[in-house]
Amino acid sequence: MDVPIDPHSSRALYRQLADELRSKIYSGELKPGAQLPTERELMEQFDASRNTVRLALGQLANEGLTVSGRGRGHFVRASAPLLFLATRSESPDRRANTANDAWTTDVTAQGRTPAQTIEVSIVRPPQNVASLLELEEGETTALRTRLRTVDGEANSLSMSYFPMSIVATTEIVQPDDIVRGANRVLAEIGHDQVRYLDQITARMPTPDERDALRIGAGIPVHEHVRVGYDADDVPVRVAVTVLPADRHIIQYELANAQ
Amino acid sequence: MDVPIDPHSSRALYRQLADELRSKIYSGELKPGAQLPTERELMEQFDASRNTVRLALGQLANEGLTVSGRGRGHFVRASAPLLFLATRSESPDRRANTANDAWTTDVTAQGRTPAQTIEVSIVRPPQNVASLLELEEGETTALRTRLRTVDGEANSLSMSYFPMSIVATTEIVQPDDIVRGANRVLAEIGHDQVRYLDQITARMPTPDERDALRIGAGIPVHEHVRVGYDADDVPVRVAVTVLPADRHIIQYELANAQ
Fold it and tell me: HTH gntR-type domain: which residues (chains A, B) (predicted)?
């Protein structure tokens, strides 16, 4: 019997109980998918009231650590996060692979099955994108929106914006997949991206994102924004990727020689 | 009068209203710190019930976009996010700056006033850190924990773990600030970090983090984990930084030649 709860502590009992369960989840003692002890078991183990136990379990659910099925108990959220390989996806050797786009290649390499649907539209982009692309007032962009699935489950949303002044006569405005990737098309018309600026924010999903990506309670999203600049330092693409945080780790590999 | 709400849409009215307000926040029409129209004004403007208006406002608060003061209305969350400069902080020229640590330098350069308190302890690290440091069972680490403030407000938590087998006889185990930075100390004892592996996750804060960093409802945290490897590919440091997402953008600048 674990008795980590100290009734004389100034820390609320439910918080002490939540701490104890959380540390078992973080340490791996309670593994992804594992069932937590029942409310009754927790009440006995920790000599706590039902109310204290429920508050602690609610706290863990709010943090996105556990899920509960009606009357079926509480479970550690099963997660097999996918690595979003920020430095690898668009490296030169990857860019030279014209058989598959970078994301498809990366997901396949992790033993998962990728798929995506694409929509192409002409839009005035949101203010932050317009400003990153240094657009004039009213200038339009081609927007390629991809809803991506992995192993048949909704996975992420990717929106790439390209100034119409650059891409109007290219495949980028066609409503089809570009197998060799839009970056390659940009390179072919003289706008190879030689540097990137990445900005990563995290926030709660909008209701639309929650629906489209099946995001559970207490789960935020990463918003990964990449601006690609050509050799003349012109921003030629802004890629916004929305990644549910329970399913994605963003990874960078950096040589410290830069 | 805006009438974007369509009662015949299949989309719930409160969601349409939340969409409308959200897009005004994202577009900058409603700026950080601005007051939203009152419940009564929204009811009139959108011909909506009080319940619909409240659901919409609640949705925006849950997304962390707005805050409300009791009886004082609803406001767009004021944000002046700090850039966490992941590629710049520890670049060679920065590392050569021995007068200030990298974080202090970066924050000062953004016109803000940094401060930090430090605690040093010897711990068995959490499982994920132990595994990133490739520790043997039971091996200990020096842990340097910094609570950082910017302009006098709690800002972020930084925890750096170093294998005791490497740092036991260095300043790193002293409970004092190291002005030239712990990375420099590592370099001096032959463990200059030549490459990094960064992994970024996002999650809701724990209650302790919420208290320590004054994190409001609906605001997730970034967890930025950096592993530093020396020239022999030995992991010599794991730095875990917890960044409230309303106050931080993580930024990477990448040359596409790597």
Answer: 11-79
